[in-house]
Amino acid sequence: MLMCSSKSTSRREGPRSPNCLLLQGKYVYLQETNTLEFERKPDDGFAAEIRSQNPETSRHTVTNYWRPMNAVSITRAIYKKLNLHRRGIFTITFSNGLTNSLPSVSPELLLCRDLELAVPGTYRADAPVVTISSFSRQLVVITSKQRPRKLTIHGNDGEDYAFLLKGHEDLRQDERVMQLFGLVNTLLENSRKTAEKDLSIQRYSVIPLSPNSGLIGWVPNCDTLHHLIREYRDARQIILNQEHKHMLSFAQNYDNLPLIAKIEVFEYALENTEGNDLSRVLWLKSRSSEVWLERRTNYTRSLAVMSMVGYILGLGDRHPSNLMLHRHSGKILHIDFGDCFEASMNREKFPEKVFTIVFSS
Questions:
Q1: Taking the CA atoms of the chain, what radius of gyration do you get in angstroms?
Q2: What positions does the domain PI3K/PI4K catalytic occupy (predicted)?
C-alpha cells in the first residue's frame, strides 16, 4: 500500500525522491501510530505528526505525498472498527477476570440448540446418550501461556459440562496418553491386590478438534500444586521462590556452572529450606486426622503409580503447574503431556526446575 514505484520515481525526481524516502523510512512509524495513537489523536493531528517528519517538500511532491495519506486514513478507519470489535469481544469482570462473549466470537455456535451430538467425552455404550442442549454465553479466559478458554456446554440432562478450549497445541498425543492410562487402570483393576488399594489413575476426556486445537474435560475440585504452595506462602509472608534465591545467593552464575557444581548448589538450597509446604497444606485442609491419613495415603499411592507410568512414557515438563491435587481424595492428577519419549530425552534446556516439596509431603 505504501510502496513506491522505481520507474515513476526515476522519471520525476531521480533515483529516490524525498517522498519515497519518507514513506520507506517512516513505514514502521506509521504502523505503530495506527496501532497505538489513533484513539488519542484525531485524523488532522495524525496527519500533522506525519508532516512534521519532512516539512520541506515541493508542490508536486506534496501532491504525491497525499495519495498514500488517503490510504493511511482508510487504514486508520479499519483499525478503529477492529478496535470496536475487540472491545465487544473482550470484557473485564471483577469476579472471573477476562472473559469472551460468545455472541461476538461465534454467534452461529450460540444459536445451536437441541443438537443430536453427544456432549464430548460423555458417550458410554451402556448408558443413555447425553446430547448438547446449548452453549454458555461466556468463555472465561484462563491466565496461562496460551490463554485457553473455559467453555461450558449445557446437556439435555440438565447438567453443565465444562471444557478447556485450547488452541495452538496438538492434543492427539494427550488423547493417546489417556488411552494408555485406561489400559493401566484395567490392569490394576484385574489384580485383586492392586484393586483393593485403589491405584487407578485419574483420567479426563481429551477431544482433538484439529491438529492444533481441541477440548479438554474440566476436572472439578482440583488445584495446581503451584497454587496451593503460593497460597500457603503468601498467607505466611514467605517468598515464593525462596529455594531459587538460596541457590543464587550461593552461586550467582548458576546457569554457567558445570554439573557437579550445580548439584552442590542444589544440595545447599535443600539444606537451607524446609520444603514441607505441601505437607502442611494437606494437614491444614483436612478436618480430622482420619481424613488427613486417607488423603496422604491416596497422594502417596497416586504419585507412585504416575511416577512408574511417567517413566515408561518418558514424561517430561513436570513442574508444580502441571501437577494438580484433588481437594477431596488427595490424589495427584497430571496434565499437559506434550513432552513424551524423545522430546524429554533429547532436550537441551529444561523449563521445569527440580523441587522437593512433592516428595517431602
A1: 29
A2: 135-361
Phi-psi region of 168 (alpha: psi -120 to 50; beta: other; left: phi over 0): left
**Which range among 8-22, 206-220, 260-274, 306-320 shows the weakest confidence by mean pLDDT?**
8-22
What pLDDT was estimated at residue 260?
A: 92
**Positive or negative torsion for Cα 156, 160, 161, 162:** positive
Residues contacting 154, CB < 8 A, separation 6+: 132, 133, 134, 135, 136, 160, 161
Per the DSSP assignment, residues forming a β-bridge with 101 are 138
Digit-coded pLDDT (tens) for 113-126: 999 999 998 988 88
The mean pLDDT of 285-308, rounded to a whole number, is 96
How much is the average pLDDT of 272-277?
Answer: 88
Three-class SS state of 157: coil
Residue 166, strand partner residues: 214
Residue (of 111, 217, 213, 89) closest to 163 by Cα position: 217
Residues in contact with 156: Cβ distance below 8 Å, sequence separation at least 6, in sequence order: 114, 130, 131, 132, 133
Q: Are 254 and 248 in contact (CB under 8 A)?
A: yes
The span from the first CA to the last CA of the chain, in angstroms, equals 62
Spatial separation of the C-alpha atoms in residues 72 and 83, rounded to whole Å: 16
Cα of 85 vs its chain's centroid, Å: 23
Spatial distance between the Cα atoms of 144 and 140, rounded to a whole number of angstroms: 12
CA distances from 340 to 164, 187, 313, 316, 351 (A): 21, 22, 6, 6, 15
pLDDT given for residue 356 in this prediction: 53
What percent of the chain clears pLDDT 70, i.e. is strictly above it?
70
